[in-house]
Amino acid sequence: MPSIRLLSRLASAFTTPRSPEDFLRLVDPLASARQLRGLVTSVVPETADSVTIRFRPGKGWNAHEAGQWARIGVEIDGVRHWRSYSLSTGAGQDPAITVTAMGKVSTALVRGTRRGDVLFLAPPEGDFVLPERPRPLLMLTAGSGLTPVMSMIRTLVPRRADADLVLVHSSRSPEDSLFREELLELADQFPGFRLVQWFTGERGRRLDLAGTGDLDAACPDWRDRAAYACGPAEFLDAAEALWQREEGELRVERFAAVVAPGSGGEGGRVTFEKSDTEVEADSATTLLAAGEDAGLMMRSGCRMGICHACVTPLLSGQVRDTRTGEVHGEPGHLVQTCVSTAAGPVSLDA
Length: 350
Ligand SMILES: Cc1cc2nc3c(=O)[nH]c(=O)nc-3n(C[C@H](O)[C@H](O)[C@H](O)COP(=O)(O)OP(=O)(O)OC[C@H]3O[C@@H](n4cnc5c(N)ncnc54)[C@H](O)[C@@H]3O)c2cc1C
Hints:
It contains nine helices and 19 strands. With 350 residues, it is of the alpha/beta class. The protein has three domains: 35-121, Translation factors (Elongation Factor Tu (Ef-tu), domain 3); 137-253, 3-Layer(aba) Sandwich (Rossmann fold); 268-348, Beta-grasp domain (Ubiquitin-like (UB roll)), CATH 3.10.20. The chain has a six-stranded antiparallel β-sheet with strand order 4-3-6-1-2-5. A five-stranded parallel β-sheet has the order 9-8-7-10-11, with helices on both faces. Pfam families: Fer2 (PF00111), NAD_binding_1 (PF00175).
């Protein structure tokens, strides 16, 4: 009969160099002490360019509030890329993201995700959430900007008899419009929810937020409602300017950082010291994008200067903040690579 020591030597011969965690992962793909993961449970097409990816998160995930977002990590050609996505399901439901194919990561997610895949995750965050007490609401959305608002609608409308919510959603056409069938059904079923669809293809123009005419027609009491807006930058800039003029209350969620006019500057040579890599970056390329384009595994998060996941020590040179145009930097300072471009030669501890 083989001795215990022999059995253990045999076992270790089979298992080396795998760690116990590697074997645990074969049984449970979400098991990782180091990195929160999510197992994809379904992928449902929404439009020709977008899908809803539902996932079961592992330990370390917190239930999301309606309107919050999470960072999602995806490996493409061996490099892990992080992007932020709003959670489109209602509070208390299994999380899901609804992604529109646009660039590198979103296209990989939309075209390549299958049930059973594992996503890398960070817990939900963000303060674009419903007000604490029920009040008349106006949601202004365009394109994929509907996703965080859809989470709010799914949370509020079917559950609260006192809900009073008007959604004005702009998209190119009915076929491009996310969650269209579900929204029509909700509007049919719940008197506290009104849907105004603005199809730019049919109307021949965008919703005009430079004046108040379109809003007066879509939602005559819009001034009396707490307003939320999410969509492309120009749409949000116009909404913010209008609400500022009207001294109203507007909460905005942006999917991309605000870029200060004329913040271009000169660009320069960027040296990633630890990675022994040098690249030439123009004034429109962030330090984060420059590193990723060179194939480096850069730390990143929201990609719009909110979460600070990308901060990296500056060794020399100066950087320009794309949001303000301000040039700054001393050796040892931490720079947010997602909203900084090179202002001349720059060296980073990355
Ligand atoms: C808080 C937050 C929530 C988000 N929620 C969602 C969501 O629910 N669904 C979703 O599809 N995306 C969402 N995004 C955008 C997402 O994080 C990515 O920016 C987007 O998927 C593009 O990444 P990419 O790698 O495909 O494109 P990249 O290859 O990084 O960029 C491609 C180009 O597209 C531009 N671009 C990026 N996003 C947009 C946009 N929204 N509109 C116009 N141009 C853009 C970039 O500036 C770049 O020029 C959210 C972003 C944030 C910060």
